[in-house]
Amino acid sequence: MNETIGANQCGFCHNRSTIDQIFCIRQLLEKKWDYNGSVHQLFLDFREHDSVRRQVF
């Protein structure tokens, strides 16, 4: 990974996909159930809040 995109992000990375992220979330939830812990998740949809102008000149 480069400095801009961390190792925990899969969007637009070669050989990484959302399936990798789903797998990680599933693993976390299974461990939570095994150890009776708690997990907090937050999902953001940036398409609704995108403020970057994407005009083609």
Structure description:
By secondary structure, the protein is mainly alpha-helical. It has one domain. Helices cover about 30% and strands about 0% of the residues. It is built from 1 helix and no strands. The longest helix has 18 residues, at about 20-35.
Which descriptors apply to this entry?
57 residues; mainly alpha; elongated; single chain; 32% helix
What's the layout of helices and strands?
Elements: H1 18-35
What is the ordering of alpha helices and beta strands? Answer: H
Q: Rg to the nearest angstrom?
A: 16 Å
- How large a portion of the residues is in β-strands, by DSSP E? under 5%
Largest sheet: none
**Number of continuous helical runs:** 1
Total discrete domains: 1
Uncertain parts: none
Task: Explain briefly what this protein structure is.
By secondary structure, this protein is mostly helical. The chain contains 1 helix and no strands. The chain has one domain (1-57).
